[in-house]
Structures are given as C-alpha cells and as structure tokens.
Specification:
CATH superfamily of the largest domain: Ribosome hibernation promotion factor-like
Distance between the termini: 59 Å
Largest sheet: 4 strands, mixed
Order of helices and strands: EHEEEHHEHEEE
Number of helices: 4
Length: 196
C-alpha cells in the first residue's frame, strides 16, 4: 500500500510524514497492495487547541472508497485515531459477506451469464452492488484531489459551500463536471396526509 501525505497550507515535517506512513502500514495486511492511502493534514483555528490539528484519510477497501477524519491536539494523535477507525472499518468490511448476484426472474442460466456489456435485450439490468461510505463536507478542489487519488471517474461528496450532496465527474475532454441536484417540492395535489 502506498501512502501519500500532504499538508494543506503548511509544510509537513519528515517526522510526521514517516509516522503517518508507518502507522498506515498497519492496514496493509487488510487492504489490497494496489491501494493508495491519501493523507491530508491541516491546521484550523478553534477555541480549543485540542481539535485544531485535522487528519483526513481516503483509501479504497474491497473496492469501496473509505474516508475517515480526526481532529486532535497534534497530528500524531489524529493519525492514531484515524488509523484505529479505518482498521475497525476494514475488519467490518472483511467480515461482512459479499452479496451474491441473483438472476432476474425468468432468465435462464445461459442468459444469466451474459457479460455486462452484452446488447442482448432479454437481460434485465439490476443493482448488483451497493456502496456505503461516510460523506464529509469538502470543497470542490478537495473533491477533485480525492477523486484523482482514488483513480475514479466520479466522486460523490457534500459540498462545503452549499452543504448539499454533489457528484463530481471527469468529462471526456479531460475537464471536470459537477452535478448539483435540486429537489423540487411536490405539488400540493401529490402530498398525502396534509390538511386532512
């Protein structure tokens, strides 16, 4: 597992960089070797110094993006907290059985084995995998960094500016697109149970 450590608006010391790399190696027995762990360290002004050192970590465990965050008195303490959280999550992921793909009703065994890219109209598309992950508010620039670090073509995040769920995606021209969904209110005639 490769660990990438960066500071947000400050230079990370060699000691903290090597400490983060060493601590995250604890996860290498659980996660795939090809996984990159992106560690972002930052300093924030708070009333209390006990939560001014922020540690954000993003990595992929069993194909699922996993993020964890800690606010502590020092980055070293924050790294310890984040690694403990990630280790517990990784063990939970490994202990949960993977859901099996069930054939759609009425499909024969031959139809069931069609490749995903098949154009056969008889195959019914279905949800075969569900990913659950924590959403923490971040700015678009941070979301781009996380998406690039994970090597994904899209990234779901809570935009810190509007505090709404957004989807960042890579366009075919190499730039990025951002989907900012707006939920419309139902017309009064469609609402149930109100005013009755």
């Amino acid at each position: 597992m490769r660990t990438i450590v960066k500071g947000k608006n400050f230079e990370v010391s060699d000691y903290i960089r090597s400490y983060a790399e060493r601590k995250l190696q604890r996860l290498s027995r659980i996660v795939e070797d090809s996984t990159d762990a992106l560690v972002e360290l930052s300093l924030e002004q708070h009333r209390s110094d006990s939560d001014s050192h922020i540690v954000d970590v993003a990595l992929v465990i069993d194909g699922r993006p996993v993020r964890s965050r800690a606010a502590a008195l020092t980055h070293k303490v924050g790294i310890d907290e984040v690694v403990d959280k990630l280790e517990r999550r990784a063990i939970d992921f490994k202990s949960k059985p993977r859901s099996r793909i069930r054939p759609a009703a009425g499909l024969s065994a031959t139809e069931e084995q069609l490749p995903t890219g098949s154009t056969d109209a008889a195959r019914t598309r279905q949800v075969v995998k569900v990913k659950a992950f924590d959403l923490e508010p971040m700015f678009e620039e941070d979301a781009i960094g996380q998406m690039e670090a994970l090597g994904h073509a899209f990234f779901v995040f809570v935009n810190a500016e509007g505090e709404r769920v957004n989807v960042l995606y890579r366009r075919s021209d190499g730039d990025y697109g951002l989907i900012d969904p707006v939920i419309r209110a139902l017309p009064t005639s469609h609402r149930r149970g109100f005013g009755r």
